[in-house]
Amino acid sequence: MIKIDTRSIHRKLRTYKRSPLSLVLLLLVLSATAITVSTLLFIIAYILIKGIPNITADLFAWEYTSQNVSLTPAIINTLIIVVLALLIAVPLGIFAAVYLVEYAKRRNKLVEMIRLTTETLAGIPSIIYGLFGLLFFVTAMGWGFSILAGAFTLAIMILPVIMRTTEEALKAVPDSYREGSFALGANKLRTVFRIVLPSAMPGILSGIILSIGRIVGETAALLYTAGTVAEIPKNLLSSGRTLSVHMYVLSSEGLYVNQAYATAVVLLVTVMIINWLSNFLAKKITKG
Amino acid sequence: MRNYKEKAMQIVFLMAACTSILAVALICVFLFANGIPAMSEIGVLDFFLGKKWRPSNDIYGILPMILGSIYVTAGAIIIGVPIGILTAVYMAKFCPKYIYRFLKPAVDLLAGIPSVVYGFFGLVVIVPFVRDNFGGDGSSILTASILLGIMILPTVISVSESAIRAVPDSYYQGGLALGATHEQSVFFITLPAAISGIMAGVVLAIGRAIGETMAVIMVAGNQARMPAGLLKGIRTLTANIVIEMGYAADLHRGALIATGVVLFVFILIINLSFSLLTRRTNR
């Protein structure tokens, strides 16, 4: 319900007559916002309109061939890499955040080092992760282009995301919860696992979902770690492309533009669902 | 016994927390150990200032790529930052709640769209648009700048918005009390007070733009030559690595890793200035 208050509009108009600069500033602000929103809507609408008609049953065939350029192996690879990377990064990230929030004394050299390096990790572009993965996991560890190398590379990439969101979620747990638990005779460890972590769960989950989004959308870090083989992997040491890598290969080859549109739709819809879920959970914590 | 378990878990937590130190150390060691020798074999000056990149003749000068990254980033900043800051002003100071409820997720979604999807969108929409309206073959500095300008919007918006919100409301009300209009008060009192936070957002956006890889590869043309004009193609540092890493060997491979080292050092400098800027705001 928007009430139209003519008197206030008149007053506004008088103000703008007196100070045209204010009107210019208002118009600037409005048009910038309009540009931002319409760009987003245009991208989404364009991809959906061009892509949805190209989604065919062929695209989801079990086997990849150069005729059907099936998405199925790429989707399976994406799922495997998401699960593996989370298995590595989630426990590490949560434990690290528990240390920083519950155990670390403030203003400690080591804690400062940890914060500085975590910030650094968050700012490193994905191609550097890809290069490092190629040098370390693929070459030095001798894993070759493999799902495993890709998962480890991405695990390092999402570690700072999980650490930061978990830290914030832990800090949002009121101290009275901890004190109540101590008063009932629980020790620190029990308090952390039974009281603090469960109440921080929605926040932690929203961080995990955010990292799933990062993994699904990642390409540069995977090209030279997980490789570009379009098959369902036989084991963790075989190469496999994820959906984003698949999309990059399709659009750079230039032969499968329609299929690339369809892949873009799948990626976009996945990301929209992930964003919605993460927002939903984040709202849950602020409501308490 | 209890106490023992408690201590053990504390050590486990500590070790988990040290993972990020280990990761950064490993990344530094492996990049530098593989990149620096190649750099010195090529010759540091020849590497940084060489205008030619011809792996087939063993000539490795990355000046074109350094300039390419800088030009494209500058273009993105020119396009993305004003729009981003103004949008942030609207979100923080102008918009009613029911619009904010829609705008905030929209900005988050803009941040969440994968860079390949942006790149593909650039390839099928912006490249033909630039080709038809400005000439050239479409894959150019301009195209990459427009696309990156869109991609850095969410970064600029969310950092600026929180910087603007952090300015005490009394500043704004003081402006009103002195007879300023709402707009004047926001732009001439609140915004200048938020400037260091906004700068931090811009610095973060620079980092994003320099590090962006896939989207740029798909629209920038990727010719390894000195920048020849706004409508001519260009190759960035990130693109150089991805395009040639697949078949590079020996010194060529080393030169590409050295390209990564240069990019990494750029990013470290940018991150450092970002944390200096935010630290100043917090104080």
Automatic annotation (TrEMBL), chain A:
Pfam families tied to this protein: BPD_transp_1
Location, primary (coarse class): membrane
SUPFAM superfamilies: MetI-like
GO molecular function list: phosphate transmembrane transporter activity
InterPro entries to which the protein is assigned, alphabetical: MetI-like, MetI-like_sf, Phosphate_PstA
UniProt GO cellular component terms: plasma membrane
All residue ranges annotated as the ABC transmembrane type-1 domain in the record: 75-278
Stated family: Belongs to the binding-protein-dependent transport system permease family. CysTW subfamily.
Annotated protein name in UniProt: Phosphate transport system permease protein PstA
TrEMBL record, chain B:
All residue ranges annotated as the ABC transmembrane type-1 domain in the record: 66-274
Matching InterPro entries: MetI-like (IPR000515), MetI-like_sf (IPR035906), Phosphate_PstC (IPR011864), Phosphate_Transport_Permease (IPR051124)
GO CC terms, sorted: plasma membrane
Membrane topology: Multi-pass membrane protein
GO biological process, one term: phosphate ion transport
SUPFAM superfamilies (alphabetical): MetI-like
Cell compartments where the protein resides: Cell membrane
Pfam families per UniProt: BPD_transp_1
GO MF, any single term: phosphate transmembrane transporter activity
Family matches, as PROSITE patterns: ABC_TM1, PROKAR_LIPOPROTEIN
Keywords assigned by UniProt, alphabetized: Cell membrane, Membrane, Phosphate transport, Transmembrane, Transmembrane helix, Transport
Top-rank taxon, per record: Bacteria
Positions of transmembrane segments: 12-39, 59-89, 109-129, 141-164, 185-206, 255-277
Alphabetical list of Gene3D superfamilies matching this protein: MetI-like
Function text: Part of the binding-protein-dependent transport system for phosphate; probably responsible for the translocation of the substrate across the membrane.
Family membership noted in the UniProt record: Belongs to the binding-protein-dependent transport system permease family. CysTW subfamily.
Protein name per Swiss-Prot or TrEMBL: Phosphate transport system permease protein
Species: Caldicoprobacter faecalis
Classification of source organism: Bacteria, Bacillati, Bacillota, Clostridia, Caldicoprobacterales
